C-alpha cells in the first residue's frame, strides 16, 4: 500500500509506536524553533533538563513577539534567550530579522525534515514540505535535548485542489474555504495534505499561508509536496542543496478526501469572532472599516507585500482608515525598500511597522472601541486585537489593501485588473541578524535579569485529588481566555507568578483570587477547551494557582498536551450531560487517584456537594500516565534520564 507524504516523513523519523491512526508514536525531531514569548520558558526548561548542548540538526531562537521593549522586561528576555542560545548551540534571530515562520521558511526550512516549534503556527513549514508541528515549550526543550516527540498518529486528510484561482482570489481564500468546510474542529487529530493539479499554481509562500492557518483547523499539521515549485523557491534563496523531492506514492491511501475547485473561489472573509465564520465579501456588504492591518506569519511574504504595494501605488488611504503594514522579514523589507514598493506604500498613507508579530499579538495598534478591523492574520478571537469590542475580519492582502483605499469592506474585483507579481529569481540574502552559537558553550555566561523568574513544577500525583470546581466555562474557551496575551502581559512571559494573577480573568475576574484562597481545585470546561495558541502558560498559570484537574467536554490537542506536561489531569465527561450537574464551588474528589489513573482510562469523580458521582475519561497513553503520576514532563524526564 502506497504512502502519502505525511506517512513518508513519519516513517523516516519513527522512534516508537505503530503507524496506525490513533495510536501513540514518537518521532525524531530534526529542527526546532522558538519565539520569545514561549522561548524563555522553553530554554529555562531545557536548562532544567540538564543537557550541555542541543542535539538537533538545527535549532533557532527567534525574537519576534515582544519587540516593543517598553520596559526592561522584554529586553531582559531577549538577553537571556541570546545568551542561553549561544551557550547551548542554538541560532539566534535578533529582533528586526522577522517573524519566526516567515524567516524559517526563507532561511532554514528543509523539505522532508521534522520541525517542532513552540508556536502553534509552526505548521507554516509544511508549505515547504516539512512535517512541522506546534508544541509546548517543554516538548521543544526535550526535543532540543535529543528526546523524541510523542504524538498520536494522525489520520491524513487529502485536500485536492482542482483548477486555478481567478485573479483577485488568493491563497487566503483557499484556507478560508477549507475552514468553512471543515470548521475550527475539523482538523483535530489529522494532517491536512494538499494534492491535485491546483497546487502547481501556488508558490511556496502561498502554500505557507494555507499550512499556517491549518492551525485554525486544529490540525496536527498541514503539508504540501516538495516539487519543482519548492526547488525554485529554495534556489532563489540560495539553498538549492536543501531541496529533495517529496511526493505521495501514486497509490497513496488517505483517511478522508475533500475537493476544492479553485476556480469557484471568490474573495472571502472570516467574520468576527472565529476563523471558520467565513462568508464571501460580496455577500457581507460594504461595512465601514476603521483599521486595516497587513502582515503576520500568515500573509507577510514578498509576494503579498508586492501585491499590496501595487494596489496602493498612486492612490490614497481613505480618511477613516488607519493602515498598518508589517513586512514579514528583514529580507522582505529590504527588497521592498530596494525596488521602490515601500515608497509606494508610504506615499499612499500606510504606516510601516517593524518586521515582527506586532498587532497580531496585541503589541500595539489596538483598534478603537467598536472598531471594524480588517486583518490579514490568522485569528480573530474576541479581544485578541487588544480591544474587546473590536470586530476583526480576516481577509487576504488584496481585500485588505482595496478596503484601505475605499474605507469600506471591498471586493477587490471592483478595482479592475489584478496586479501580476512574478516570483523573484533571487531573493536578497543577508543573514547578519542571525547570530551563530558559540563553538564551545562552556565559556558563555547566561544572563538572567530580574524578569526571569523560576517556573512552577508540579508534585507527583497524590492518593486523593480534591478541591472545588473553581470556575465553570462554556465551549471554545481559547488560550487567550485562559492566559490573556496582551501588550501589558506579554513582557511577563518569563514570570509565571505574575501572569497567574490574570489567568481566566476574561471569563471571571475573581478566579485567580478564588483559586489561591482555596489552595487550588478544578476547572470545568465545555467543548474544544484550550483552542488557539500553543502557549504552555495556559497550563503553567493554572498550575501556579494550584489547579489539579480540568474536566471538559473536549480539549484542543496542544493545550491538552500542555496540561499533561504540567501534571494537570485533563479529563473529559464520559456523559456530557454531567457537565450540567456541576456548579461552581461544588466540592469534587477523586479517591485512589494513583490506582484509578494507572488502570482505568477513566476516573470516578465524586461531587461531595451534590452527593453524586460521574465518570470522567482520561485519554492517556502509558507514557502520559507515567507523566501524570510523576507530576509532569520535567519530573518524568529527570526520572527517565
Ligand atoms: Fe506572530 Fe501572530 Fe504568527 S503572533 S507567530 S504573527 S500568529
Automatic annotation (TrEMBL):
A GO CC term assigned to this protein in UniProt: cytosol
Gene name tied to this protein: hacA
Domain Aconitase A/isopropylmalate dehydratase small subunit swivel: 522-576
Similarity section: Belongs to the aconitase/IPM isomerase family.
Keyword field: Iron, Iron-sulfur, Lyase, Metal-binding
PROSITE patterns: ACONITASE_1, ACONITASE_2
Cofactor needs: [4Fe-4S] cluster
Keyword Translocase: no
The protein's name: Homoaconitase large subunit
Database matches in CDD domains: AcnA_Bact
Oligomer status and interactors: Monomer.
First and last residue of the signal peptide: none
Biological process according to GO: tricarboxylic acid cycle
The keyword Metal-binding belongs to this UniProt entry's keyword annotation: yes
Assigned EC number: 4.2.1.36
Coiled coil: none
Gene Ontology terms, MF aspect: 4 iron, 4 sulfur cluster binding; aconitate hydratase activity; homoaconitate hydratase activity; metal ion binding
InterPro entries named among the record's database cross-references: Acnase/IPM_dHydase_lsu_aba_1/3, Acoase/IPM_deHydtase_lsu_aba, Aconitase/3IPM_dehydase_swvl, Aconitase/IPM_isomerase, Aconitase_4Fe-4S_BS, Aconitase_4Fe-4S_dom, Aconitase_put, AconitaseA/IPMdHydase_ssu_swvl
Domain of life (superkingdom): Bacteria
Domain Aconitase/3-isopropylmalate dehydratase large subunit alpha/beta/alpha residue range list: 7-407
Amino acid at each position: 500500500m502506497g504512502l502519502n507524504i505525511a506517512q513518508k516523513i513519519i516513517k523516516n523519523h519513527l522512534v516508537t509506536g505503530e503507524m496506525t491512526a490513533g495510536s501513540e508514536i514518537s518521532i525524531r525531531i530534526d529542527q526546532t524553533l522558538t519565539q520569545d514569548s514561549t522561548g524563555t520558558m522553553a530554554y529555562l526548561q531545557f536548562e532544567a533538563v540538564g543537557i550541555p548542548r542541543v542535539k538537533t540538526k538545527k535549532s533557532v531562537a527567534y525574537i519576534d513577539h515582544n519587540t516593543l521593549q517598553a520596559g526592561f522586561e522584554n529586553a531582559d528576555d531577549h538577553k537571556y534567550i541570546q545568551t542561553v542560545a549561544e551557550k547551548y548551540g542554538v541560532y539566534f534571530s535578533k529582533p528586526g530579522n522577522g517573524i519566526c515562520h516567515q524567516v524559517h521558511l526563507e532561511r532554514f526550512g528543509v523539505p522532508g525534515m521534522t520541525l517542532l516549534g513552540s508556536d502553534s503556527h509552526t505548521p507554516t513549514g509544511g508549505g515547504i514540505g516539512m512535517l512541522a508541528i506546534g508544541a509546548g515549550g517543554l516538548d521543544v526543550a526535550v526535543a532540543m535535548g535529543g528526546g523524541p516527540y510523542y504524538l498520536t498518529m494522525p489520520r491524513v486528510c487529502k485536500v485536492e485542489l482542482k483548477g486555478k484561482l481567478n485573479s483577485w482570489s488568493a491563497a487566503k481564500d483557499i484556507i478560508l474555504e477549507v475552514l468553512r468546510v471543515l470548521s475550527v474542529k475539523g482538523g483535530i487529530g489529522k494532517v491536512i495534505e494538499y494534492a491535485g493539479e491546483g497546487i502547481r499554481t501556488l508558490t511556496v509562500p502561498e502554500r505557507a499561508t494555507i499550512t499556517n492557518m491549518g492551525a485554525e483547523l486544529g490540525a496536527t499539521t498541514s503539508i504540501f509536496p516538495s516539487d519543482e515549485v519548492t526547488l525554485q523557491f529554495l534556489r532563489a534563496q540560495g539553498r538549492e542543496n536543501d531541496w529533495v523531492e517529496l511526493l505521495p506514492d501514486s497509490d497513496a491511501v488517505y483517511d478522508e478526501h475533500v475537493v476544492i475547485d479553485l476556480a469557484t473561489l471568490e474573495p472571502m472573509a472570516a467574520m468576527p469572532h472565529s476563523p471558520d465564520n467565513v462568508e464571501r465579501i460580496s455577500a457581507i456588504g460594504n461595512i465601514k472599516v476603521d483599521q486595516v492591518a497587513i502582515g503576520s506569519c500568515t500573509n507577510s511574504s514578498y509576494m503579498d507585500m508586492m501585491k499590496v504595494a501595487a494596489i496602493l501605488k498612486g492612490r490614497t488611504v481613505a480618511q477613516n482608515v488607519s493602515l498598518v503594514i508589517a513586512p514579514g522579514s528583514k529580507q522582505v523589507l529590504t527588497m521592498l525598500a530596494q525596488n521602490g514598493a515601500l515608497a509606494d506604500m508610504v506615499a499612499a498613507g500606510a504606516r510601516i511597522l517593524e518586521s515582527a508579530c506586532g498587532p497580531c499579538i496585541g503589541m500595539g495598534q489596538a483598534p478603537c472601541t467598536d472598531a471594524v478591523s480588517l486583518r490579514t492574520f490568522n485569528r480573530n478571537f474576541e479581544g485578541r486585537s487588544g480591544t474587546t469590542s473590536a470586530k476583526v475580519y480576516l481577509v487576504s492582502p488584496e481585500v485588505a489593501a482595496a478596503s484601505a483605499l475605499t474605507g469600506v469592506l471591498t471586493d477587490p474585483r471592483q478595482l479592475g485588473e489584478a496586479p501580476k507579481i512574478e516570483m523573484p529569481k533571487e531573493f536578497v540574502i543577508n543573514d547578519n541578524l542571525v547570530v551563530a552559537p558559540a563553538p564551545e558553550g562552556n565559556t558563555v555566561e547566561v544572563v538572567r535579569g530580574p524578569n526571569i523568574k523560576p517556573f512552577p513544577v508540579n508534585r507527583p500525583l497524590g492518593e486523593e485529588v480534591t478541591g472545588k470546581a473553581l470556575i465553570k466555562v462554556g465551549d471554545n474557551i481559547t488560550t487567550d481566555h485562559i492566559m490573556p496575551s496582551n501588550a501589558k502581559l506579554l513582557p511577563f512571559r518569563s514570570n509565571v507568578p505574575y501572569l497567574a494573577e490574570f489567568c481566566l480573568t476574561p471569563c471571571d475576574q475573581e478566579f485567580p483570587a478564588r483559586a489561591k484562597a482555596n489552595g487550588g481545585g478544578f476547572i470545568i470546561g465545555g467543548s474544544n477547551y484550550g483552542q488557539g495558541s500553543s502557549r504552555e502558560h495556559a497550563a503553567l498559570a493554572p498550575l501556579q494557582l494550584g489547579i489539579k484537574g480540568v474536566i471538559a467536554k473536549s480539549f484542543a490537542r496542544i493545550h491538552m498536551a500542555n496540561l499533561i506536561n504540567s501534571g494537570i489531569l485533563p479529563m473529559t465527561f464520559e456523559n456530557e450531560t454531567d457537565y450540567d450537574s456541576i456548579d461552581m464551588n461544588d466540592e469534587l474528589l477523586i479517591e485512589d487517584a494513583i490506582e484509578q489513573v494507572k488502570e482505568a482510562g477513566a476516573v470516578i469523580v465524586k461531587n461531595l456537594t451534590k452527593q453524586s458521582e460521574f465518570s470522567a475519561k482520561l485519554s492517556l497513553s502509558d507514557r502520559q500516565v507515567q507523566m501524570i503520576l510523576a507530576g509532569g514532563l520535567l519530573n518524568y524526564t529527570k526520572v527517565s534520564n
